[in-house]
Amino acid sequence: MRKRQRLEDLNVLDDFMLNAIANDPDVGEVFFQEVLSVLLERDIGEVTVKAQSVIPGDTPELRGIRLDVEIQEQDNSPAKCRLYNMEAQTYTGENLQKRNRYYQAKKDSKQLKSGEKNWDKLPDLYMIMITTFDPFGKGGMIYTFENTCKEYPDVENKDGLKYIYFNTTGTKGGTESIKQLLSYLKHSKIENVTNEKISHIHDYVEAVKQSAEVRDRYMTIGEMLDASREEGKAEGKVEGEIIGRINSLLEILSEFGEIPEEIKKQFYEADEDTLKCWIKLAAKSSSLVEFVDKM
């Protein structure tokens, strides 16, 4: 049986760690502000951070999405802001471009109120994905996509939308500062702290790891996983995508209040097909009681 990682050894791009940082009231905002300033090579204004937000499908039959980290930066104008959707992608096999297209559409659909006629109120949106593999096979450290005109490439489509992929394995393009940060995000160890900015970022990460609340949460998850394994679950069954589904389920149901531990335990003991059904049920439920009654 593969030994579970210690909390101290988790890297920033680990799903649990990224979520824990984003949820930390003291560290989350300044952490992502500094990370964005390095990746985008410009000063970032004051930000607010939301972790693992869920946007359900418009109907029960349509797919919803789960955003890893949503960052809002206030621009100079009171009515204008920039939005950043930041995700970590550590496994291949998905069509990331079409996935991002769907995520962007769902994200934009929530930005304007009914009857709004001023399209300038739609925020600029940066879809940022940090991958631990090369998504385009060119060896690039950064892949940036913006809309331009095919017939007249110098004509920019100023819709405020950018897709940016940061490849932690890339060797071409990018600055030394970006390369060093990507290396740290993938392997978040003291030996990868190579400049003052990353030193600050590392301090934030260590502060989150020392949080009693984070340590208790990680221990609770570990105990649930260990209990499931002891009951004869196949090794790795409750890892990877299944953990992602459990996190999605917990995020949706958290809107209804605190989830009882006995209900959480059922999530960690369920198989993947059951979790899929429960996610759909949770998206359609109007209360935790309704969800539990129909489980």
Structure description:
With 295 residues, this protein is α/β, with parallel strands linked by helices. 41% of the residues lie in helices and 16% in strands. The chain folds into two domains: 7-209; 212-286, no CATH class. Strands 1-2-3-4-6-5 form a six-stranded mixed β-sheet, sandwiched between helices. α2 (28-40) packs antiparallel against α5 (196-209). Residues 232-238 have low confidence and may be disordered.
Describe, in short, the structure shown.
With 295 residues, the chain is an alpha/beta fold.
Global geometry: globular
- Beta content comes to 15-25%
Task: Please tally the helical runs, counting DSSP H or I stretches of 4 or more residues.
Answer: 10
Tally of DSSP β-strands: 6
> Percentage of helical residues?
40-55%
What structural class should be given to the helix and strand makeup? alpha/beta
- Largest beta-sheet characterization: 6 strands, mixed
What radius of gyration results from the CA coordinates?
A: 20 Å
* Unreliable spans: 232-238
Q: Whole-number average pLDDT? A: 84
Element order: H for helix, E for strand: HHEEEHEEEHHHHHHH
Number of domains: 2
* Strand order in space, largest sheet: 1-2-3-4-6-5
State the end-to-end CA separation. Answer: 31 Å
Please supply descriptive tags for the structure shown above.
single chain; 295 residues; alpha/beta; 2 domains; 6-stranded mixed sheet; 10 helices; 41% helix
Secondary structure: elements and pairs:
Layout lengths: L14 H9 L4 H13 L6 E9 L9 E10 L6 E9 L6 H13 L15 E8 L10 E4 L15 E7 L8 H11 L9 H14 L2 H19 L10 H13 L7 H9 L2 H13 L3 H7 L1
Helix pairs in contact: 1-2, 2-5, 7-9
